[in-house]
Every structure is written in C-alpha cells, then in structure tokens.
Amino acid sequence: MSEVQLFLLAYSKNDKTEAREIAASTAKRLETKESGILNVVQELGPYLTEENVEIRSNAIAYLSTVLAALPSRFLSRQQTEVLATWYLSCIKDGPKLEYAAEGLQELLRTGRADDALVQSITSRLLDSIEDLQRSPQSDRYAVYVLVDYLLAVHRTSLVDIQEQVIPGVIDLVSGEKDPRNLMIIFSFMKVIMVEWQITQFAEPLYESVFCYFPITFRPPPNDPYKITAQDLKERLRACVAATGDFAPFAIPALIDKLDSTSPNVKKDVMQTISACALSYGSRVLSRYSIPLWDSLKYEIFNVQEENLADDALNALRSIATGLSFESNFGETKSYLGQYTAPITKECNQGIQDPQQKQAKAASRILATIAAAGENAYLMVIKDVMPPLYELYRTADSIAKQRGLLEVLVELLEANTRVWGTWAPQQPRSAVYNPLQPFKEKMLEVFSPALMGTSKGEVSFRIVALKGLLQMCRIFGFLDRDEIGLVVQYLNDVALEESTGEDRLQKEAIEALVQISKYKSDPILEISIPKFMAQLPQSADHGQMLTYVPSLEILAELSVEKTIFILIQRRLLSKLGDILNNGSSSEYALSILSTLRHIFSRPDLSQDLSLDLYFRMVIEEQTRDIVTANKPGCPVNARQSEAVIDAHGRLCNLIVRALPENKQAEVLNQVWSLFTTPDSFTPVPFSNQRSENERKTLVLSSHLLSGINTKKVKLDHITWGIESYFQDIVRLALDETLPGVRMALLRTLAVLTNKFFPTGAALPASIIDGPDSGLLPGNKTPNASRVAFWILKGLVFRMDTSITRILELLVSQLADAEYGQIIARGFDMLLSQDHALSEANHAIIRKLHKQKVFNVCTPRIATGFQAAPVSARANYLVALAGLLKDVPSEIIMPELETLLPLLLRSLDLDDPSVSAATLDTITVVAVQNAKGLEGHIASLVGRLLSCGEVKPSNPSTVRKSALRCLGLFPTRIRHEVLLPYKTQVMHRLLAMLDDPRRDVRKTAVDCRKEWAGMDEPDEDDE
Amino acid sequence: MADNANPTILNAADLPTRRRLSSHSATGKPRSFLFDDIVPADYNDPFATAATDSGLSRSFSSSSSDLNSDSDELAEPIDEQEVYDLISTISDPEHPLSLGSLAVVNLPDIHIVPAAGSSASSRMRTVLVEITPTITHCSLATVIGLGVRVRLEQALPPRFRVDVRIKEGTHSTGDQVNKQLGDKERVAAALENGTLLGVLRKMLETCQ
Q1: Are the C-beta atoms of residues A90 and A45 closer than 8 Å to each other?
Q2: Which A positions 925-954 lie with beta carbon below 8 A of chain B?
Q3: Residue B38 is part of which domain span?
C-alpha cells in the first residue's frame, strides 16, 4: 500500500498518532529528496475526485499533515504558489473547509511567500469563501484561525491591500454566533482596528462588532469550553475601545444603552465607557465628555444599586483621566476644564444643603474626579474650595456644617491618592500640591470644630478629627509643629471623659495609631509622656477610673516598635513603683494586664531586647514576688492571687519567645523561681507551706507551660520529672485554694502533654500509681480533677493510653455516687486551654477530638440504654460536654445515633446541659439541616419549651433556643416545617413578652422567619 | 415617579440607640478590654458546679453554675426605644434608605401608655407611633403607615394595641390617611391586595 493509502486507512480508523507517523515518514523522504512534493500531490489525485466527501477531505488532511512535519521555509516560492492554488481550489469546492484552511496555514508556515504571494493568497481566499455562516462551526473556526494567523504574521504584507481585506473580513464574520468563534473574531478584529489606519472603514468595522453589544450570553451548564460571558464582554470591550475613530458611533450608542433596565447591561455599558475614555484620546473624547457626564450623573444622583454608582463614578474618573492625556494649548479652555466646569458647578449646587441625599452623591463625584490626577484635582479644588468655605462660614446649623466638613474630608482623602501619604513606597506626585494655599484655612476650620464644640456633638467632632487626620497623612503637607499640634488635640480628646458613647475617644486613639505609623516622633515626645503623666503615683481600691483610660490608650498605641519599647519600659518601672508604695492590687493588676496586652506581639521572638525582658520581668520580678510571699511578710500587693497570675501570664508570653538556652535556664528555675536555696525552699519539697507560699506555684505553672520541649533538651533538667509529677499529684489532691489548685492541675496536664516522651509508654506510676486518681476507689472531687487534667494532657497528644482511660471513665458514669462528677469532667476534656495551646508549644494532634469522640460516643449511647434511670442523666451531661468541643464534621455522620440523646438532654432542665446541647443542635441546623428533618416534631416542641420563662431556662438558654428555631425556615424544607407553623407562631406570641430584651428580639426575628414561609393555601395568619 | 428625589438624610450614627441612653459609669468601674481575658481562677472547672460542699447528691436542676444566676434577672420592660428599634430599619418604599435615617419615624413621636379603659394594674398597653412623611403630599404615607403597623403587630405581644398616625401638620391629607390606618377592615382589605403585600414585604425585608 502506498503511504497515502496507509494514511487514509489510519485516519478513517481515527488513529491520529499512526496517521501522523505515516505523514512524518513521507515528509522525511521529501526532506532527503527521495521524493518531490508534486509527486505527493499527484498521488493524491484520484482521491481528490472521489465522490465520498470523507475520503476527499482526508486526502487533503494527508497533505496538510505532511506539510506540518516539514521544517519551515522548506518549500520554494513556486511550490508554495502551486500548493496554495491547490488548497484554494479545495476551499472553493468545500465542504470540509476545516482541513483545507488548516493546510493553507501549514503551507504559509512551510513555504516561502513574499508580499505579493501573501496578498494574492489572501485576496483569493476572501473571494473564494461565500456564505461562510452556512458551514459547520468547526469549519468556520478553522477559517477564523487562518485569518487570525494571516493578520498576526503577515499584517505588514497585507496593509497595502487593506481596502480589500477589511470589507472581506467583515463580510466573512458577519452573522457569527458561536461564542468560541466570537472569541477569536474579537481578537483579530482588534488587531485590524489598532494596527491599521481604518478611518474610512470605521463605521462598518464598528458595526461588525458592536452588533454583539451588550453580550447576554449564558454558558450552558458544564460547558467544556469554559467561555464565560465575562470573557466575551472583555474582548468585545477591547474592540469597542480600540480606536477613537469609533467615538462618533460608539458613544451615542452607549449613552443610549445606559437607559437599559437591566443592571448587568448598565454595568457593562459603564465599564465600556470607562475603557473607551481611557483609550480614545483627549481630543476625540472631549467632544463627548459633557453628554457623558449628563447621562452618567443620573446613575449617581438617583442611586438604585450601590455598585452601579461605583461603576458610574469609575467611568467619570476615567473620562477625567482620558482628558488629561493631551493638552490643547491655544484654546481658551483645556479639554479637562471643559469637562470639570459643569460638574463642579452642579456639585456645588448639590452640596448647598449637605444633609440631603444628593449632597452625598455630589461629594463623591467631586472626590472621585479630583482623584484622577494632579490637573483634575486642581480643577476641582479651585472651583469648589472657595464656595465651600463660604457656605461653612454662613451655615446656620452644626448638622449643615458637618455635612460640609464631610465633603472636605473626602477631598482630603482624594488628595492622598494623588500626592500620597507619608507611608513609604507609595506613589507620590512631585507636582506642587494645590491644597497648600488652603492649609491654614482648613486648620482654622477643623481645629475649633474638634476642640471648641460642645461635647455632645460627637458626630460633628468626629468629622473634624478625620479631617485633621487626613491632613496629617498627606505627604509633605503639614510641618512638624502642625502635626505636633494635631497630636496634642488628639491626646486631649482621647482622655476626655466620654458622654455615654466613646466613639470619639476611639477615633482619637485610632488616629494617634495611624499617625504613629507615619511619624513616631510626636507620639514619643508628646503623647506617651502625656498619658504616662495621667497615671497616679499611687491608687487605692476603687479608683480604677483614674488610670484605666490612660492604660487603655497606651496599650492601643503600642503598635510601632519604637513606641512599644518606650511604653513597656515606662510601664515596667511604674509597676515596680506601685508594687512598693502600698497601692491597691487593682492598680498593679491593671498595669500587668496592659503589659501583657502589649507583649502579645507575634514578633516577640525576634525582639533584640529579649534578654532584658528575661532579666527584668522573669528573673527580678518573679524573685520579688516570691520574697514578698515568704512567711512573716506584711500584707502587700504582691500577695494578691490575681497579681501573681497576671505576672505569671506575662512571664509565660516572654518564655515562649525565648531562645533555647534561656528556656533551659527557666526550666531549671521552675520550682526555685530564681531564688537561692537558703532564701526559699521550693514548695513541692514540703507539705507544710503557708497559703502565700503555695501561691507561687501559679508562677511555676505559667513558666513551665511556655517551654518548648521540642527544642530544649530535657536531659540536663535538674529536677526529676517523674518524682515531681507524683509530688504535684499529691499537692493537687490536697489543695483547697482554687487558683493554686488550677495551677497544679494545669502543671499536670502540661507535664503529661509534653514532658514525657511521645511514642514510648508512659511510666506505669502515672496511670496506675496509687495517687494517679485514675483508679476507681478514690472518689473525691479533687481526685477526679486530677484524673481529668492528666487525661487532658494525654488526649491532646493522642497518647495510646487514652482509650483505656476513657473507657474506664465512661463505665463509671453509672456509679450512683460518683457518676455525676465524672459526667461534668467531660465538659473540660476537649476544651481549649491557654496552657495547652499551640503558642505554648503544646503537642496537639489533629485527630485527637475524633479519637475521643470515636471512643466515647458509642459507649455513652449503649451505656445510656443499659443504665439505671437514676444515672441516665450522667450520660447525657457527659455527651453534651463532649460534643460542644467536637467539630461538626465529626458529629454529622453519627447524627442518627446522637439526636435522640440530644433531645433527651433538653428534657433534663439543666441549664448548662441545655446550653451546650442547643449549641450543638444549632451547628447541625446550620451545616446539615437535612439530618434534622426526621425529628422536627420533637425538636420544635422542645425548643419552644426551652424558650419559655422558667427557672431552669436562664435567658441565655431561651435566646439560644429561639435563635436555633429561627434558623429552621432558612435551612429546612418548608413543606417539612409548615405543619408546625401555626403552633410555633402561636407559642412565640408569649415569648414576644419575655422579660429580657435580647430574648424578645430573638423571638421577633424567629417569628419573622416562620411567618415568611408561605402556606400553599393561606387561611389564617 | 419619585415623590421626593432629594430627601434629607440623618447620619446612621446619630440615630437614637439604647447604647447612648445608658450611662457607662453606673458601676464606677470602666469596661476595659484589658481585662477581657482575665477569668475567675475556677473557670473551666466543671467539677466546682457538681461538687461544691458535700453536694454530691444534689439534683441537677439546682446544680448549675452562674448560668443560673439570672434567675433574679432584671425585667427589661418594652419601652419606646425598643419600639423605635423595631420600626426604624423598615425601608422606605422609594429610596433604599431606612425610615429612621429619613426621620419618618422619630423616637420622641413614639408613646407607650396604659390602654384606654383598662384598670391601673392591667398590663394592657397602647403604643402610639406618629410618622412624619418626607414631604407633605407624600402619596406613599399610607403604605409607610401600614408597614409600621404590620411590623408592630407581628413583633409586639398581644397585650399591645397598635395605633399608627400621621403626625399632625406634616401631611396635606393626614386625616384621611389616619382614617384609613385606623380602620381595621380597611387595613385587612389592604393586606389582601397582592401588589401592596409585595411592597410591604420588601419594606420589611431589611428589618433587623
């Protein structure tokens, strides 16, 4: 068989790979001159006259595939010409244009075609295709690809015959509807529009694309081509905006289409106007700038949808930008000036009564256009500022003045967008800022508005404050002294006693923080000394109002590094003073809380002063606290449990951030707490310790929690972990002070979580030792505390021992005496705890909640069935406590088993169980409401009962129940709910009269949701 | 079609809220974020609730933590501000703005009084809301009044009788509108009208 025959065989079997190989071998022979291209064509001859279309076109494909395998420029000009003629005749013959068009493209690549040949091929091509739209999509597509290729590669050859090409192409594409084809058509049409001088063809070219505007295409579901309406819109937009020659047709048409009732079309129109404005050129655009303004303003002044107004504003700004490109020297008014003059005039009118709806729109328009560039800003400012100032001067009410200041604030904000802020790496303009001459006047307006107005005028003063802040932000605008003055105002405002709402104070603090990002000097030199000076030398109990406001401000200000450093130094030294001068523990506690707030920086571990913090806070202050709690010491603030705890938490923050060597040092001092052996004996060494000394265990707990045991080597530790563990268990079992007991329990959890090596089995004494608390028989509350906290540490790291311990605990739920305490324990097992957090380097395995859930819930479910009635509540309490911390995706698969239990637990009339259960059900309702559908009757009844006023339903429970019930109509199929609508609507009436306001509110919302469900045939309601 | 294309708008932050009514320093202690994460030391100690004293045998209903502490919870009676909150977020039928920000409903124009003819100890109340149309010839005043009325009837307990009127002197045909709003049968008939119901539904959609 000849290669042609082989190829046709493979092709008809649709084996493209083999076909390609055959063609490649033909090509090889051509390359080595064993055969000539004309021979190949001759061989094809008989197939080309075949009746069968399939065979005819496959024969064309053979030649094309051979050409594709040849190197480029392999064929001579003559051969190229001959083959081109051949292909063109195939195209003329149709059908299956696809193969011929592809082949012609291969030929142009492989052959040698000079300008004349390309021109002749192109013009003959355009002549020979008639009525392309009657061919199938794939044929049309191939022809468009060929045209695209010609325009991309041979554009310069074709430019001489563009008068023939352009009408030909327009003719070719007219009537096309397929989105795939349109994508490529828009693409090559844009090439013509942009690259060639098309003035004489502007209208037909414009018509050829604009007839598709607006695009209303909606892709079919699962469209394999993934062409979206947005893709088409963008390509079409690029065509419409391609050349200013289109302006006379496009802009009137776009203005016309702005009247469309469809928001999507309006959006498209305005975005297209925006694109045109940026590309048509100032001269052309200026002819239409006023009519465009006249139509676009309607969208802003009569805003229906916010995002449409945004698009209209964008278009207005683009016009201003487009008009700024070229200036027209010699004419009386610049293009831009002709545009802005009517706008500023109309907007000046609009802001006459600044409280009215249109004033907002006017002010947005002014700010948007001003932000278009230096010239635009200048134009707006020179027209707007003088009347604005005059209006302000003569305004007869504060409300009016406020409206005017708001306009000014927007203009200031627009100024930063052109001239930039002090923030580094911002685009800034080097041109003179036209706001400069108004600076003094603006300060004279804003300053008294903020500082000299009655304190009740909060909103007015806030606007003034924002104005001053914007002025401080503009790059190079205010000088050092002026910014200093503003900072002084802000300091005073921040410290002002609030008049019931603290919006103004918050704004002032926020403004100081903003300024500190640009200019820290005035904050360091003026603000911090001012706020520190507000802190009294000493303070008694109940005087919090004298220092807390300043502390809050200092805490908020501590953002920038330099400011943080200064504030923490000043506060630490202040803390030392007041701990020694007999001030109340409240005062010390407040400062410690502030310090903790400012030390909670994510970058603390990179702080170069960590050594200093270690020495000052961890070492010295800890030692001082321990010393102050020794027997015989007089009562002092360092003995306060709250102060000790707050100090411990502060230390913990720093310990986390310390490098390994320092952490190791802390670890060895965990019990001795930086004291010498002769001055203090660590508490675990003795049971005969005073309350005050035992309080130092709180510090030990916080220090220990922060250690990163993945980094610090435990071999060098100077105390025995296992024996200390036993000591701590013993201390915890006996401890009566709640705070100290909690610290001991956390210590146990931290020890089991990260101080015993993972992977290895735990020392037997931990689980089975006489004091471990895990064994039945030891039935004091403290024993179960110990048991659950040890377990918690193990659960978080998912130790292999937990299955056995959990099974044991679940089995004890049936215990008549002890089951109740055990049941409560499940509440804390999975909950977050600051000692066992990621930040504290705890070992937390991802699947630990899943594990506990998988072990416990089936056992709780079966245990519940088997338990005596008196003990059943214990199972429900345990379940509620556990589920509240389990992510819903773990719960969902077991919903069928759990729901009956959850419903029963709502019957217990136990507030904490109800609260936890309602949370769980609410999560289910949000995420997987379908799972509830089978239980609607019992759920609705119980939720309504939980919403009733009775002692077992505190307001939190009533509120959760009603919130959950209110979710149903938004999540569950209405036909399932409708049978209960009458009942719900009726019983909710009572809840509208709940004594608590927030419950009533929830009842109103819930009732609204249920009322909104339509009955198929409404009779009552 | 718009009656008043350029109404005066109040700043949302300046509308009356409960936050502003209550003074902060009643307790003498500032509410500070600095203490947000300081919790009592026995927080997260569920055992404390089950095991205080020797209370192992106490029943569950009395065993709970501070959740229960509001059994002596203070009653917060329904007041004018609460009524205002219910209706101020209704949307105006022609602007995408709330009745509160358009000053159509105003706190001083809401009055809760014991219902006429009820005894002194009765809990029956009448709530009177006077609405102020944005312009005196506002053709939508009736619809707005109806919206307020429907909202309050849905959201207040049955012991409240709802009375919605046009504030005197703010509307050219105020008396007629009042007659319509006060006539139960005409209100009921209006609510049968599908188009009107659609408008009302859209107005009440934004209620918060």
Answers
A1: no
A2: 951-952, 954
A3: 31-72
List of chain A residues with pLDDT < 70 = 1, 94-95, 327-332, 498-500, 686-688, 765-779, 1015-1021
Q: Is residue A100 part of a domain?
A: no
Structure tokens at A741: 């007991």
> What is the C-alpha to C-alpha distance for residues B138 and A262, in angstroms, rounded to an integer?
28
Closest CA to A372 of A405, A325, A330, A329: A325
The rounded distance, in Å, linking the Cα atoms of A28 and A32 is 6
A773/chain B closest Cα distance in angstroms: 14
Q: Residues A831, A945: one domain?
A: no
Which CATH number does the domain housing residue A995 bear?
A: 1.25.10.10
SS3 A76: coil
Cα–Cα distance for residue pair A894/A375, rounded to 1 Å: 67
Query: How many interchain CB pairs under 8 A, A with B?
Result: 173
Q: Give the confidence band of B55 by pLDDT, cuts at 50, 70, 90.
A: very low
Q: Any idea how long chain B is?
A: 208
Single-letter code of the amino acid located at A311: D
For strands B110-114 and B160-166, give the pairing: unpaired
Pairwise CB contact (< 8 Å): B60 & A992: no
In Å, how far are A903, A931, A974, B151, B205 from A968, measured between CA atoms? 16, 12, 9, 21, 18
What per-residue string of b and e applies to A571-595 under the rule 16 or more CB within 10 Å gives b? bbebbbebbeeebbbbbbbbbbbbb
Give A62-76 pLDDT, tens digit per residue: 888 888 888 877 888
Identify the CA nearest to A614 among candidates A565, A650, A576: A650
What are the Cα distances from residue B102, in Å, to A230, A999, B88, B91, B136? Answer: 38, 28, 9, 10, 14
Cis upstream peptide for A214 (omega within 30°): yes
**Judgement on whether residues B107 and B166 belong to the same structural domain of the protein:** yes
B40 and B113, same domain (yes or no): no
Cα distance between residue A815 and residue A822, in whole Å: 9
In a domain, B36, yes or no: yes
ipTM of the assembly? 0.86
Whether A503 and chain B come into contact, CB under 8 Å, resolves to yes
Determine phi and psi for A275, rounding to 5 degrees.
Answer: -65, -45
Q: Which residue has the tokens 């959850």?
A: A902
The DSSP result for A193-255, as a single string, is HHHS--GGGHHHHHHHHHTTPSP---PPTT-TT---HHHHHHHHHHHHTS-GGGHHHHHHHHH
Cβ-based neighbour number of residue A658 at 10 Å:
23
B19–A357 C-beta distance less than 8 A: no
